[in-house]
Amino acid sequence: MANKKTLGHISAHLISMLYEENKSIFKISDAQKILGKGYNETTDLLSELVKRKVITRLKAGKFLIIPQQLGKAEQYIGNWYVAGKEIVNSKRYYIAFYSAMHYWGMLTQPLLKIFIATQKRQVVPQEMRDKLVFVFVDEKSIWGIKEEWVTPNKKVKISDIEKTIIDALTHPEYCGGITEIAKGLWLVKEKIEYQKLQDYIRKHNKNVVAKRLGYILEIFDIKQPELINQLREYIKGRYDKFDPNLSEKRIDKNKWRLIDNVGQEQILNLIRR
Fold first, then answer.
1. Are 104 and 124 in contact (CB under 8 A)?
2. Where in the sequence is the domain holding 229, given as residue range(s)?
3. End residue of a domain, out of 21, 43, 75
4. Is residue 132 domain-shared with residue 217, that is, in the same domain?
5. CATH number reported for the structural domain that contains residue 51 in this entry
6. 0.85 cut: is pTM over it?
7. Residue (of 116, 97, 115) closest to 107 by Cα position
8. Is-contact 221 156, C-beta < 8 A?
9. Roughly how many angstroms between the first and final C-alpha of the chain, as a whole number?
10. Does one domain contain both 132 and 253?
11. CA-CA distance, 143 to 10, in Å (whole number)?
12. Which long-range CB contacts under 8 A does 4-13 form with residues at least 24 apart?
């Protein structure tokens, strides 16, 4: 809780009551109800508390209490997933890409940004521009989603492991590139429901995604013959880049009609460390 010794009586009462009501994230109307004050007087107080780093502004009209024991309070946004949910202006959203990979244990690095897929265009609030990325997707792309408890009393919508793999291979640029995705797939290989992944490949129906997945499974020698055979059906005449963010320099040969600009050895080295 915020240290009451650093706060005036009114501010301390507000913070205490918000904590008591389990509202570490709160709206102006919540503060008004507690304080019994008008809109302008309440917003003036909240602006002062933002300046003093007692609270932080997630977006217009929505705030987060900063635990005062933190050394770098200006970096605090609480639970990343909950903060993202509170900011997005649509019920049709899900935590996606790099953030979903982190949630499912596909990353060995800390979470530095929250990626949210949504069909509704929205500007990232000024206060969150280095912490939040909205990726705008078609309505037909919003599927394969679970509601997960990320705190004892907060749920968020997040892509399941299999949809996270599909999304990552569709947009490697939002996931740290193919090497990061390949390492993530290896880390969760025992948790993947391969029949579901097979169904998702059919539903998604994108040749390049199927080829990237097939090639990674082949490099790692992951034995899923039914899935591999299905993925081979997507090998057409066109060549695609294995990692679309790298140059077209071919490093390794493959039968998946992919320009392998990463190299099998580099991917295998990820699991030898």
1. no
2. 81-270
3. 75
4. yes
5. 1.10.10
6. no
7. 97
8. no
9. 42
10. yes
11. 46
12. 6/52, 6/54, 6/68, 7/54, 10/35, 10/45, 11/45, 11/48, 11/49, 11/54
In total, how many domains does the chain have?
Answer: 2
Give yes or no for a contact between 144 and 197, defined as CB atoms under 8 angstroms apart: no
Tens of pLDDT along the chain (273 residues)?
Answer: 444 445 688 888 898 888 888 888 899 999 999 999 999 999 999 999 988 888 888 888 888 887 664 444 444 456 778 888 888 888 899 999 999 999 999 998 888 889 999 998 888 877 677 888 999 999 999 999 999 998 888 899 999 999 999 999 999 999 999 999 999 999 999 999 999 999 999 999 999 999 999 999 999 999 999 999 999 999 998 899 999 999 988 888 899 999 999 999 999 998 886
Residues 6+ apart with CB under 8 A from 63: 25, 26, 27, 31, 46, 50, 55, 56, 57
Residue 233 and residue 171 share a domain: yes
Residue 23 bridge partners (DSSP): none
Q: Which of these three, 75, 105, 131, is where a domain ends? A: 75
